[in-house]
From TrEMBL:
<dbReference type="GO" id="GO:0016052">
    <property type="term" value="P:carbohydrate catabolic process"/>
</dbReference>
<feature type="active site" description="Schiff-base intermediate with acetaldehyde">
    <location>
        <position position="153"/>
    </location>
</feature>
<dbReference type="GO" id="GO:0009264">
    <property type="term" value="P:deoxyribonucleotide catabolic process"/>
</dbReference>
<keyword id="KW-0963">Cytoplasm</keyword>
<dbReference type="GO" id="GO:0004139">
    <property type="term" value="F:deoxyribose-phosphate aldolase activity"/>
</dbReference>
<comment type="pathway">
    <text>Carbohydrate degradation; 2-deoxy-D-ribose 1-phosphate degradation; D-glyceraldehyde 3-phosphate and acetaldehyde from 2-deoxy-alpha-D-ribose 1-phosphate: step 2/2.</text>
</comment>
<dbReference type="GO" id="GO:0006018">
    <property type="term" value="P:2-deoxyribose 1-phosphate catabolic process"/>
</dbReference>
<comment type="function">
    <text>Catalyzes a reversible aldol reaction between acetaldehyde and D-glyceraldehyde 3-phosphate to generate 2-deoxy-D-ribose 5-phosphate.</text>
</comment>
<dbReference type="GO" id="GO:0005737">
    <property type="term" value="C:cytoplasm"/>
</dbReference>
<feature type="active site" description="Proton donor/acceptor">
    <location>
        <position position="182"/>
    </location>
</feature>
<dbReference type="InterPro" id="IPR028581">
    <property type="entry name" value="DeoC_typeI"/>
</dbReference>
<keyword id="KW-0456">Lyase</keyword>
<keyword id="KW-0704">Schiff base</keyword>
<feature type="active site" description="Proton donor/acceptor">
    <location>
        <position position="89"/>
    </location>
</feature>
<dbReference type="InterPro" id="IPR011343">
    <property type="entry name" value="DeoC"/>
</dbReference>
<dbReference type="Pfam" id="PF01791">
    <property type="entry name" value="DeoC"/>
</dbReference>
<comment type="similarity">
    <text>Belongs to the DeoC/FbaB aldolase family. DeoC type 1 subfamily.</text>
</comment>
């Protein structure tokens, strides 16, 4: 299986250097990855570095904990769009979810979705599936599936548990066919990447993209 087309080549560490961005963008072009996912301050730079290629530029919103105010997330989204982001990966307010405040989550989505849609950009909603119950995951699939987001994404890579075949399978079973699935967090080798794609993932967020493309394990490490 050729997995490179599914990969969002990712670097989100808080100490990211310009040189790191140059490296991941060059690798994304070389291996024909779907996108690079970079910290918000580097969106403009990544757009410059990937210009003329098919590689999309993604960034994160409300990352990694998701409890930013809706107004703060909106500000982040506007800035990312101004800088040229093609895709936005937003963490939901997990505090609201864990307190069973689904109305808050619906309101959050209703505020952010129109601006992204108005610019014709892609929205990926991160629910941190590794710390949710199956019931909570299914409710997320129902809420965000009805709204017609582009992707439901498993994880930030910062929780104690990242992507799993079980979570992707649940997504696949409970999401409408027009909503795609992004698995992320702890994907460090080709075998696991292949399992996730076979379970239904159409994007893979990982920092080990090159190792995966080469069929190698990147060993232990973060997102």
């Amino acid at each position: 299986m050729q997995v490179t087309q599914y990969i969002d080549h990712t670097i989100l560490k808080p100490t990211t250097l310009v040189a790191d961005i140059e490296k991941v963008c060059a690798e994304a072009i070389e291996y024909k990855f779907a996108a690079v996912c970079v910290p918000p301050p580097f969106v403009k730079k990544a757009k410059e570095l990937t210009a003329g290629s098919a590689v999309k530029v993604a960034t994160v919103i409300g990352f990694p904990f998701g409890y930013s105010a809706v107004e703060a997330k909106l500000a982040e989204i506007v800035l990312a769009l101004v800088d040229g982001a093609d895709e936005l990966d937003m963490v939901i307010n997990l505090i609201a979810l864990k307190n069973n405040d689904w109305q808050y989550l619906a309101n959050e989505l209703n505020h952010i979705l129109p601006i992204i849609r108005s610019k014709g950009k892609v929205i990926k909603i991160i629910i941190e599936s590794g710390i949710l119950t199956d019931e909570e995951i299914i409710k997320c699939c129902e809420l965000y599936g009805v709204a017609g987001i582009d992707y439901l994404k498993t994880s930030t890579g910062y929780a104690e548990k990242g992507a799993s075949v079980h979570a992707v399978s649940l997504f696949k079973k409970h999401l409408p066919s027009n909503v795609q699935i992004k698995a992320s967090g702890g994907i460090r080798d080709y075998a696991f990447a292949k399992e996730l794609v076979e379970a239904g993932a159409t994007r893979l967020g990982c920092s080990a993209g090159v190792a995966i493309a080469q069929g190698q394990s990147a060993g232990d490490g973060g997102y």
